[in-house]
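$ ./design --mode recover --in tokens.txt
reading tokens...
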């Protein structure tokens, strides 16, 4: 019996393990001037709050980036394949492990653009604008997605039932198929990702990411802001440029 197909428009981002604190930045930065004395002179972040905030802003402003690499975030992500491919493309200092359709049967879970997802593209290459579609366009998208995904899933199941290997059967599945992955990065690489994959008026270098990957980036950014508030504030203050 054919599995029930699920359509969804959300992106899942969960924070797994993390070793990320503003103190990690200031401690590793100060070893350059304190040497072995750093262990004796560095206490809690709050003990030297003004100095630590000033140091992080200095590092961010002057783009001394290596101290920000002594941190770690591991994210669990559920997103359609066309989003996970973009995550691979725009990585720097990032490790990714994704589920493999060669070794496991894929799940019948497909992305469907929500009613708030802009549908109409205007402008020229490099300066595209996207506008909301009308009711007829949204109905067309829904119908076409349902038709294509149902046909693809039926073909996938039929090949598996005939004993065709998973790595061949998966080739008929669309890029709207949901995949899962773990992504591990440091604060510097995360800021690089956020600078490219979010839209923000305060950014020194404006970016125009695809709607769906920005949903992922926004959730990552929320974890970053919570775990490293001083670093995050400096990142925003200095134009959202990775140091």
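writing sequence...
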């Amino acid at each position: 019996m054919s599995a029930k197909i699920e359509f969804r428009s959300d992106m899942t981002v969960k924070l797994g393990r993390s070793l990320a604190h503003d103190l990690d930045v200031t401690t590793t930065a100060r070893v350059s001037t304190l040497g072995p004395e750093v262990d004796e002179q560095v206490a809690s972040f709050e003990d030297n709050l003004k100095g630590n905030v000033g140091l992080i802003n200095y590092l961010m402003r002057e783009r001394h980036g290596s101290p920000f690499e002594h941190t770690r975030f591991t994210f669990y992500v559920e997103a359609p394949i066309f989003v996970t491919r973009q995550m691979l493309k725009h990585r720097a200092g990032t490790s990714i492990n994704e589920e493999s359709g060669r070794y496991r049967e894929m799940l019948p879970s497909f992305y469907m653009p929500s009613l708030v997802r802009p549908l109409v593209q205007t402008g020229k290459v490099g300066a595209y604008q996207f506008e909301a579609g009308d009711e007829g366009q949204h109905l067309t998208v829904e119908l076409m997605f349902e038709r294509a995904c149902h046909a693809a899933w039926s073909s996938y199941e039929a090949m598996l039932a005939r004993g065709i290997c998973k790595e061949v059967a998966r080739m008929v599945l669309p890029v709207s198929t949901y995949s899962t992955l773990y992504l591990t990065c440091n604060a510097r690489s995360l800021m690089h990702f956020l600078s490219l994959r979010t839209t923000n008026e305060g950014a020194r270098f404006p970016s125009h990411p695809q709607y769906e990957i920005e949903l992922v980036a926004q959730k990552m950014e929320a974890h970053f802001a919570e775990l490293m508030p001083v670093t995050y504030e400096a990142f925003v203050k200095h134009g959202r440029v990775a140091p």
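exit 0
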